[in-house]
Each structure stands twice: as structure tokens, then as C-alpha cells.
Amino acid sequence: MALEIVTLVIPGFNDSNDELTRLAEFLASVSPDIPWHVTAFHKDYKMTDPENTTAETLMRAAEIGKKAGLRYVYAGNLPGMVGDWENTRCPNCQSLLIERYGYLIKGYFLTPQGCCPSCAASIPGRWDPTFPRQITDRPFVPLVRSQSDFLVLDF
Q: Mean of the per-residue pLDDT values for the chain?
């Protein structure tokens, strides 16, 4: 079984340092190996308040998680805007294990046994011996739609 925690960080609702710290410390007390994904709220459909979560807020939340002792913290859904927080690094030697752009995997460097290729640390999770390639051909970017995303009805 695999477990990941995803937290939608909403400005003015759950983005205070205190609330993020308490959440991160609780997760770390359960297990420092639980992956914590902090994601950005964005205005969509009927949810037009509050303002969108900024990349700076996501990076602050990720830093709080790391400081609380979580070993796998990610800032997601703002591709290319959160620096190295999109990637997975070995908690022992900091070698790049999985390189991402948003949800798009650009590089997969784990050994077939799910270990760091540099220091051989076992990385918790369920890993394929080889990366079977991405299911999607592009990352999800909020409010950006391609023509193929729309259903066209001819009457």
C-alpha cells in the first residue's frame, strides 16, 4: 500500500505558517517518509474567491514541511514555477531521483530495486523496475485548454 497526502493551500484559509507547521509536524510524527504534496488553489468555475495561491506560498509550505522533518515534500500544479520542489531527491545524498515539470516526469533515475543510484539508499514507495513512460503527453496547467479538450457538437 502507498500513501501520499495532498494539501490544497488556500490563501486566507489554511496558508498560515502556524497551520502549515502543525500539519507538517503531525505528518512527520506519523512517518517522515509520507510524501506531502502542497498544491495551489486557482480560481475556477464558481470558485472565484480567494486569490490564486502563489508559487512563493507553495515554496514556503514546502520549506515548512522539510523543516518539520518530512523527507519527501513537493510543490505541485504550478509547472516550472517552484524550482526544485517539483523533483524527488534522495534524502541521504540529495541526488536527483525523479525530475518533473508539473506532473510530467522528465527523468527517472531510480535503480530497478527502487534505490538511489548514487548512495544505494532504499527509497520508500512502489517503483517500477523501469519507467514505463508518461501516460499524458503534457502537464496539466490550470486555465490552459487545448482545442482537443473541448467537445464540439454539430446540430
A: 87
pLDDT tens column, 78-89 = 999 999 999 999
**Residue with more model confidence, 113 or 135:** 113
Name the DSSP letter for residue 122. Answer: B
Greater model confidence, 48 or 71: 71
Is the peptide bond preceding residue 50 cis, with omega within 30 degrees of 0?
yes
Rounded CA separation 24/32 (Å) = 9
- CA 124 vs CA 41, 72, 106, 127: distances in Å: 28, 10, 20, 9
Residues 10-45: b if buried by 16+ CB within 10 A, e if exposed: beeeebeeeebeebbeebbeeeeebbbbbbbbeeee
- DSSP, residue by residue, 28-80: HHH-TTS-EEEEE---BTTB--SPPPPHHHHHHHHHHHHHTT-S-EEEESSTT
pTM of the model: 0.82
Which CA distances in Å does 133 have to 104, 105, 124? 10, 8, 20
Percentage, residues of the chain above pLDDT 90: 65
C-alpha distances in angstroms, 68 versus 9, 31, 63, 129?
A: 17, 11, 9, 31
